[in-house]
Amino acid sequence: MTEPSEPVQEPANLRFLRRLVTVLTAVMIGGLLVIVALLVIRFSSDRTPTPIPLPDSITLPDGAKAEAFTMTAGWYAVITQDDRLLIYDRASGALRKSIDMTQAD
To answer: Please, which pLDDT band fits residue 105 given cuts at 50, 70 and 90?
Structure first.
């Protein structure tokens, strides 16, 4: 067999595809580096949110046992085991409203 003296010219479509794959690979690597950098910046920041202080104590009605608790800046709520929603005022701790969750609308 004789070896060709001139290198074989690759088709234009193949050349375009090779360049396209190279560019897409570079873009993907760059995007991955940006995501990693953003995660490092986000998790290394010293910003700690100021927590809303929990109430010292909550007085539930007789026989009520707490099952869940949630709160905002102005009120907090307790869901009892007998499916009542008790909403308390944050400042005074007084019961604002009691909602029976077993009743249909």
So the answer is: low
- Residue 76: how many other CB atoms lie within 10 Å: 20
Beta-strand ranges (E) seen in 1-105 are 66-71, 75-80, 84-89, 95-100
**Using one digit for the tens of pLDDT, what is the confidence trace for 47-104?**
777 777 778 888 888 888 999 999 888 899 999 998 899 999 988 888 999 998 887 5
**Which H or E run contains 46?**
none
Backbone dihedral region for residue 52 (phi beyond 0: left; psi -120 to 50: alpha; all else: beta) = beta
What are the tokens at 40?
A: 């490092």
Tokens of 74: 């102005």
pTM equals: 0.51
Hey, which residues does 99 pair with through a beta bridge? 85
Task: Kindly report the backbone phi and psi dihedral angles of residue 12, in degrees, each rounded to the nearest multiple of 5, phi listed first.
Answer: -65, -40
Alpha carbon distance 88, 71 (integer Å): 9
